[in-house]
Amino acid sequence: MLRMSATDRLSLRAALWAATFACSLPTAADDAGFTRCLAELRTQAAAHGIDSATFDTHTRALPPDMTVVDLLDAQPEFTTAIWDYLAALVDDERVADGRAMLAQWAKTLAAVEARYAVEPAVVVAVWGVESNYGRNFGQRPLVQSLATLSCFGRRQSYFRGEFFTTLKILQQGHIDADKLTGSWAGAFGHTQFMPSTFMRLAVDFDGDGRRDLVGSVPDALASTANFLARAGWQHGRPWGIEVRLPQGFDPAGAGRRARRSLNTWRAAGLTHADGRALPEGDEAAGLILPAGPTGPAFLTLRNFDALFSYNAAESYALAIAHLADRLRGGETGFYTPWPTDDPGLSRAERRELQRLLRARGYDIGEVDGVLGTNTRRAIADLQRQLGWQADGRAGRRLLEHLRHAD
Ligand code: CA
Question: For residue 292, is it left (φ>0), alpha (ψ between -120 and 50) or beta?
Answer without folding.
Answer: left
